[in-house]
Amino acid sequence: MPASSERGVLIPPEVSLHARPAGQFVKTAAAFRSRVTVAANGREADAKSILSVLGLGAGGGVMLTIRAEGDDAEAAVIALAGCVSGLAD
Q1: CB 64 within 8 A of CB 8
Q2: Greatest CA span in the chain, whole angstroms?
Q3: Structure confidence by residue, pLDDT tens digits, 8-56
Q4: pLDDT on residue 31
Q5: Is the pLDDT score of 1 beyond 60?
Q6: d(CA 63, CA 77)
Q7: Counting CB atoms within 10 angstroms of each CB, which of 15, 29, 57, 88 has the fewest?
Q8: Going by CATH, does the domain composed of 4-85 fall within 3.40.50.1370?
Q9: Which residues are catalytic?
């Protein structure tokens, strides 16, 4: 059975997941083999799809829930939480 991991992370107040920050997020997610999803505002998206991530419409101060399932799930969630925490507009 594949490993799974989940973590909540707050988007910095001065940042929203528009094109550049979302691109950084997707690039980080794509580096992992695990299936990775991100949820916000009652919606869930494929973390490896820029259009899906942009479709969340997540702005500053919004809580993201990052979930991963697969062999490198824990590492993926840790890396993505760090990516979100380090975002700058």
Answers
A1: yes
A2: 39
A3: 999 999 999 999 999 999 999 999 999 999 999 999 999 999 999 999 9
A4: 98
A5: no
A6: 14
A7: 88
A8: no
A9: 18
